[in-house]
Structure formats: structure tokens, C-alpha cells
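Researcher: I'd like a structural prediction for the single chain below. Treat it as a standalone chain; there are no partners to consider.
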Amino acid sequence: MRNRIVTNNVNDTYKRIKKDYSVAAEKNIEQLFNQEKRNTIKSNQIRTLYALISPFFEKFNYGNVPNVNEAKKILRKTKIKLAYQVGRDSQMRNGNWNLGVKPFNDITNVLELIDIVLKSNDFIDDLKLYCDYFEALVAYHRYYETLREGRR
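Model: Treating it as a single chain, here is the predicted structure.
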């Protein structure tokens, strides 16, 4: 029997993020953790994905606004790397996912949201929002992982 992964519509996710990225991130991670345990992305995998957007955090955290053209170029490369990570995840015979990256993306839309950010008329603001959303995903993942393991 295959485990069915619920997927979220990228436009709905974007609207929820625009309203409150922290609430959207928590609900998405909670949804992820309500699925089969093996379908949950591992800490090292989420940190690998998080590292892909860390160059933007460095700019924003020091009060610098990235150059739009350069930021778009880096974001396009980031999309390629994210696509690779999602694509290399494979479903096992029991229906669980090997790495948990595919179910993570299906729920959080981190890959698909890049297209929305790239096309945005408010690119810098939406890039910052995307980074904040991703950071919240990492934080809530850690929190729910700790709860699941009974360390809280």
C-alpha cells in the first residue's frame, strides 16, 4: 500500500505566506509531521536545502539589499539545485520516500515558490518573504522533530 502524500497548491501557499509566513510554515510542517514518519524530511536534508538560500540571508541580515539581477541569477541556480534534491528522492516499495525531500516540497512548495518570486513585481520583498518562510520551516521542523522524539 502506497502512502499518499497530500500536496498543496503553490498559489494557495503563496497567499498564506503573504498573510503570515510563520503561521503558514507551522501549518505546513505540522501537516508534514502528521504523515508517515518515514515521509518526513531528515534534519540534515532540510539543512542542505536551507544552505542553498543562505546567501540571501547574509545580505538581508546585514541590512544590504541584493542587486536584483544578481539575486535573480542566484535564485535561478538555487531552483536548479532544489529541483535536483527533489528529483533524487525516490519512493520505496513500501510507499515511503527515501529522503523525505519530495513530500517536504509537495507540502511547502519551496521549489515552485521560486517561480512566483522571480516573476514578482516586488521581487526584493518577495525574496525576503521567501527567505523568512524557509527559515520558519527549518525552525518548526526542528520543533516538531523534538516533539516527535519525546525530547520536549
